[in-house]
Structures are given as structure tokens and as C-alpha cells.
Specification:
Helix content: over 70%
Oligomer: single chain
Order of helices and strands: HHHHH
Largest sheet: none
Number of helices: 5
Radius of gyration: 18 Å
Length: 120
């Protein structure tokens, strides 16, 4: 490989677009929401619920940090949603809850991250 091709390859790799934390959060929520929707057996559902709870646990830890830049009220709401998600996931696993509730919550948060709020 000559130096020109090597330099071009290295430059192309570093020219990849930088993703914002908001875009990363949106993508993660999208991925886990898709898994929740597509879970057609108990094993797939349990895996999707686990991943959703992991994501919400991470989000709740982030909004609990004193340096988090979100407004206090929004941080409190997101923390509450994390608690609700954990509780409702346990209900689903015991056969007493509907996964569509979690899908709706994730979808609403994704709308907010995309800047669409509740106008969809």
C-alpha cells in the first residue's frame, strides 16, 4: 500500500460524523424498543426487558448526577420513568403487565430526543 492510500484511509476513518449524546440515546432507545416489539417468546421478551431496564438504570444514574444539565423537573420525570419501567418489567415477567406500556414510554422519550415533543 502506498503512502497516499494509507493517508486517505486514515483520513476517511477520522472523517466519520461525530454523534451527539442525544443521538446515541435515541439509537439505544430505538434498538431496545424494537426488541420489545419483536419479542415473540418468553426468552426474547425477558432479554428485551433486561436490556430496557439496563438502559433506564443508566439513564436514571445520569439524571441523578449533580452536574446533569437537564432541567430539574425533567430529570425528576426521567428518574420516575426509570422506577416505573423497573416495576412494570417485573409485572410483565410475572404475567401481569403489557409490554406496550414500555414501548409507549420509550417512543415518547424518543420523540422528545428527536425534538418532536408530543406532536406526533
Amino acid at each position: 500500500m502506498n503512502a497516499h492510500l494509507l493517508a486517505q484511509g486514515l483520513y476517511a476513518a477520522s472523517a466519520a460524523p461525530v454523534r451527539t449524546p442525544r443521538a446515541v440515546e435515541y439509537d439505544l432507545l430505538s434498538r431496545v424498543t424494537r426488541a420489545l416489539r419483536q419479542a415473540h417468546d418468553f426468552a426474547a421478551l425477558a432479554t428485551a426487558l433486561h436490556e430496557n431496564r439496563r438502559l433506564w438504570t443508566t439513564l436514571s444514574a445520569d439524571v441523578a448526577e449533580p452536574g446533569n444539565g437537564l432541567p430539574r423537573e425533567l430529570r425528576a420525570r426521567l428518574y420516575y420513568l426509570s422506577e416505573f419501567t423497573a416495576h412494570h418489567s417485573r409485572r410483565i415477567l410475572s404475567g401481569n403487565g403489557d409490554v406496550s406500556v414500555l414501548v409507549e414510554i420509550n417512543t415518547a422519550v424518543m420523540r422528545g430526543l428527536a425534538g418532536r415533543g408530543g406532536d406526533t
